[in-house]
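Record format v2
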Amino acid sequence: MTMNRLEEFELDCVSEVDPSFEVPARAFLRRIGRSRLFDELIRPALDEGSALVAVAQRTRPWPPWGIGARTISAMEIAVPRAEGTAGLTSVLAVPEEGTEIGLLAAVHATLLDGLAERGVERVHLTVREGAAFGEWLAARAGFERSDSLVLTEHSRYWLHDAPIDEHRRAIGIEGADVDDLVTGGALKDDAYASTAMYLLGVTQALGPSWDEQFVSGEIIANTGPGMVAACLPPGGPPALEQ
Amino acid sequence: MGSVDIVIRSHAKDFAWLRHCLAGVRRWCTGFRQVVVVVPGKCERRLARYGIEADRIVLCPDYADDYLGQQVTKTLADTFTDADHIAHLDSDSVVRRPLTPADLMDDAGRPHLLYTPGTYFRRGAPWQAATERFLARPVTCDYMRRQPLVYPRWIYPELREHAVRQHGMQLAEYIVAQPPLGFSEFNALGAYAHEHHHDAFSWHLHPSPAYDETWTRVFWSWAGITPAVARELRVLGLPSAATEEKDAFTADP
């Protein structure tokens, strides 16, 4: 049967776990070698209501219901989602779609749209202090370092955040229609370069975190509260001891 | 006879089909008051991309499973139009000869309804169990035999009231709670009408050589627009694709 990319993929946001999401999500994560993310991140985050997941999925032509009816090709998780802000991650994708920038951008835009509809105004990346690529990438994506800190056993990470619209503008998808992104019509020249750089860069920088190599991750998923600055002592976080 | 609107419940996945459906309506249908296209809200942004235009576009709720969702929408058709009669047409049905409201009703203004006894089917009426469960009585026929299907607007609230009375819940809730293939909106309407309002319709045993069923070519959208289907759609859209060519397309999908 003939089908174009637009008819092939359905882009949606998911905010709760049900079988129609769990089965294809688990299959997708298994395919890309990151099965642990479902039980260790997606399910608990969705269950506590602090996450939003955008997916690009295909539906079996017939029957469109039942186990195996849906296949996820790409996914991005926003976590946590609280107090008008949300942490972004990378767009995960099956290998054959890994460089389909239009599809990846459509998933990212769907997530941003979904967050905005739920009252989220600012989004952020969690970037390791002093990480040359991570900080450069965040700045190129419109983010500025905030005073919110995440400390791991090994590193200091700062939330780099921006209003959603500013982030969209910075990566070249301002005003872009999701359908135009899927078909590849929305990203031309500089916009394509900016979007590709951001999406592939975050994928690369977040890879170690997804693979549990926390020591070296330049960008990690923010699995703590959205804005941690309010919890810090007066005067801000203590300086890093050398 | 009163006013008759054509109501088409569609979805973005079917917009390629819907274009052909609407082209057939524009070409062959006259005397209908309006063509109303109903789509889930999330599909709205794709209407322009596919050049979908109708007298009215109505947005309905998004459903997690739109196979059931489209059935819910059809049982609410009277809430999308104030026409006296509603002619349901699916996106993957293409009208292929002149069609007026008078073709769909008898001289007394009663909608023609086709029914086929279960004995005509190798395994009984296809939706028998689902329709019996909803109506809570034996059902022996199938009522989804032709497009468009026409019902008077007053029957929809009655069907919804039946759901509340019989099942203690709104019809929409009942439908989305059913298992796959657990409800058939047109069989529910048809079987309900057959039992409770027999004299308000003009009933026709189907198949019957006396009854012309060639108004529409009913495709099967789930199979996609294959090269063979695309060829057929092209022919249907040609100026020469008139009634006299109907014999080329008499095979069921």
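Residues 5-225 of chain A form a domain with the Aminopeptidase fold (CATH 3.40.630.30).
Chain A has a mean pLDDT of 89.
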